[in-house]
Design brief:
The chain is an all-alpha fold. It has helices at about 10-35, 40-80, 85-105, 115-145, 165-170, 185-205, 215-220, 220-225, 235-245, 250-255, 260-275, 280-285, 290-305, 310-330, 330-340, 345-360, 365-395, 400-420, 465-485, 485-495, 500-505, 510-535, 545-555, 565-590, 595-615; strands at about 150-155, 175, 440, 455-460, 460-465, 535-540. It contains 25 helices and six strands.
Length: about 625
């Protein structure tokens, strides 16, 4: 077993990190254990009671002020005053009544001043009834979604998606619950909540006799909203109760509230200590970019847990993105191996795949048959365009990176005219008025999710898109077989050292054309897989940036601009898409309403390409 060389500084850093992790871990575990202990339950109960008393007290003050205003109104009218005098009298009465209420302490009740035994029991019964209702509502909605899988929509401006959002697949599907109807069990539990609230009101009136049934009913939404909500966690309950009660729970309250954060931070510090300890072998094995992005991915996972985001849902989305983007990233591999470097002209193949998808819709085909038809058409078109594209690259050797970029952009721009003049007739694709195809075309009637839904299942809350991953694995296996064939080996040799390959009798130009064609054909299949998973095809400017995103992923996986392997495709796609999938909701949760998630996406994708190009700047092919 190889001995790990650790410097003194590394060892000291590891000891300090582990010591801090130990302290935070102990504090976090103590706080988690106290949440279900008597002390933690009592603290949350007291905060809820105080919050409820504050809300009810505000209602009592309002009732007192309303009564004083009514007296002032009658007095002003009895004195013969008009509307102006009445308004002035009521405004003065309100000011004086609120000042008097504050002076007399009306509406201000401290928990230590009242017997909260019966009040606590009534409050606990109402909270339990609320939680039962929300649990049944979530179950009923899940059942509705399972029966209406096609009832999905995207954002309202789906037809005007920006090209960056389109290329990133940042659009999240949301379930249309407009047709959802409350079940009988939900109605029964809702009635139980109402009954429990009425019982609580009787206890409240014992403390605030001025409160009437009408006032308490007007306060129902506020009081019940503080006590429980759908998707509640301990942290959300604590935050609502603390904000409404104004209580300072001290250090114990902080430990109780931040217990999960402390425990998860301790776990993150342990991982950091291991990385510091094994830094040299990790860098040698993974490289700096993969190590940094891998650590960043783990950090996002921990932040998702701390922020109470659904990590299982995000991991499921990451697997979907792995499958839907994997073939596009795989299309980079033949180009790198044959010697044309990163095939940023990938939009040439994407256009062929899009035409195949459009023909599928035009001919009314659907399901797996429609998907395969689109793939076959896309392969045929991209094989032809890929051949001429390869011929062009053979005439411009040495400038492939620039050429592929400009060719890709030019083809996308040219097809912006093509999408307006191609003779498609299907109303699903055409604009309602005028000529041309829509920017975004739905695949509901064609092959939407035919791979995603095939043999899909849940594992520990993570939805596994079996069909999608199997198709990606099949494509990887076929490329792996090809690269080990006689032609594949010759192609790799021509890409690694063209002069030596030519000296051994290999037709280097022919091998470059084969690699370019294969790369272009994989891109055509890749965009069809992408579209069936995304649920839409996007035309015009949308394909322009996809080559850069695929290049980012394969470079992140450990490939260079001259060598690549299947493992680079899989690892790079998972890390790249994982960071994007988790980064957006985490960034939006940390800074609501900001555009930091989109900025993060741009920094990651362009930063990885820049790093890879600088590292390979002195590389030659002999």
């Amino acid at each position: 077993m190889q001995r790990v060389n650790v410097s003194r500084k590394q060892l000291i850093a590891c000891v300090l990190i582990v010591a801090l992790a130990l302290v935070l871990g102990v504090v976090g575990l103590y706080g988690l254990s106290c949440r279900n202990a008597d002390s933690g339950v009592k603290l949350l109960q007291d905060m809820r009671l105080q919050a409820m008393l504050n809300t009810a007290g505000s209602g009592a003050v309002d009732a007192y002020v309303a009564a004083e205003k009514q007296v002032a109104t009658k007095a002003a009218r009895a004195a013969g005053g008009g509307m102006k005098e009445v308004r002035e009298a009521t405004a003065k009465a309100e000011t004086e009544a609120r000042a008097r209420a504050e002076e007399l302490g009306i509406g201000e009740v401290d928990l230590s001043e009242v017997d909260t035994t019966a009040l606590g029991v009534a409050l606990g019964a109402m909270v339990a009834a609320q939680e039962a209702y929300y649990e049944e509502e979530a179950r009923a909605q899940e059942a509705y979604i399972a029966l209406n899988k096609d009832a999905v929509t995207t954002t309202d401006d789906a037809a005007e998606i920006t090209e960056d959002a389109a290329s990133d697949a940042a659009m999240e599907e949301t379930i249309d619950l407009s047709g959802f109807v409350a079940t009988e069990e939900m109605n029964r539990l809702s009635a139980a909540v109402d009954e429990a609230y009425l019982a609580l009101c009787e206890e409240i009136k014992g403390i605030f006799p001025a409160l009437t049934d009408d006032i308490l009913q007007s306060l129902k939404e506020t009081i019940t909203g503080v006590m429980a909500a759908a998707g509640d966690t301990f942290e959300s309950r604590y935050d609502r109760a603390e904000a409404s009660s104004g209580m300072n729970a001290g250090a114990f309250g902080v430990i109780l509230r931040q217990a999960r954060t402390f425990a998860l931070t301790a776990l993150g510090l342990v991982i950091l200590a291991l990385v510091v300890f094994f830094y040299a072998p990790l860098v040698k094995k993974m490289g700096v970019p993969r190590l940094i992005i891998g650590m960043f991915f783990l950090l996002l996972c921990l932040l998702a847990l701390i922020l109470n985001l659904s990590l299982t849902s995000q991991l499921g989305n990451t697997l979907v993105r792995l499958g839907m983007n994997g073939v596009l990233v795989l299309s980079m591999l033949p180009g790198i191996q044959c010697g044309i470097s990163l095939n940023l002209g990938m939009p040439i193949g994407i256009i062929g795949g899009l035409i195949g998808g459009l023909l599928c819709i035009e001919l009314g085909m659907s399901g797996i048959g429609g998907f395969l038809f689109a793939c076959v058409v896309g392969l045929m078109i991209s094989a032809v365009t890929g051949y001429f594209y390869g011929q062009l690259l053979n005439r411009l050797k040495g400038d492939e990176m620039s050429v592929t970029t400009y060719v890709g952009f030019s083809v996308v721009s040219l097809m912006c005219i093509g999408w307006l003049v191609l003779p498609f007739k299907s109303p699903i694709m055409k604009w309602p008025l005028g000529n041309g195809l829509r920017t975004t075309i739905g695949l509901q009637t064609a092959y939407k999710h035919v791979l995603n839904n095939f043999l899909s299942f849940e594992l520990f809350g993570v939805t596994i898109p079996t069909g999608l991953l199997l198709f990606f694995a099949l494509c990887c296996f076929l490329v792996w077989l090809f690269m080990r064939s006689k032609t594949g080996i010759a192609m790799s040799a021509a890409g690694a050292n063209p002069r030596f390959a030519a000296a051994t009798g290999i037709d280097v130009d022919r091998m470059r054309i084969i690699g370019t064609m294969l790369s272009t054909m994989l891109a055509a299949v890749g965009i069809i897989v992408y579209g069936q998973s995304y649920g839409f095809m996007q035309l015009y400017q949308a394909p322009r940036q996809m080559g850069f995103l695929a290049a980012s992923a394969i470079l992140l996986g450990g490939a260079s601009t001259s060598r690549a392997k299947i493992s680079n495709v899989i690892i790079g796609t998972f890390l790249f898409q994982g960071v994007l999938t988790l980064g957006m909701p985490v960034a939006n949760a940390l800074i609501p309403g900001s555009t930091i998630s989109e900025t993060l996406r741009i920094l990651i994708s362009n930063g990885i390409i820049l790093y890879a190009l600088t590292k390979s700047g002195g590389d030659t092919r002999g």
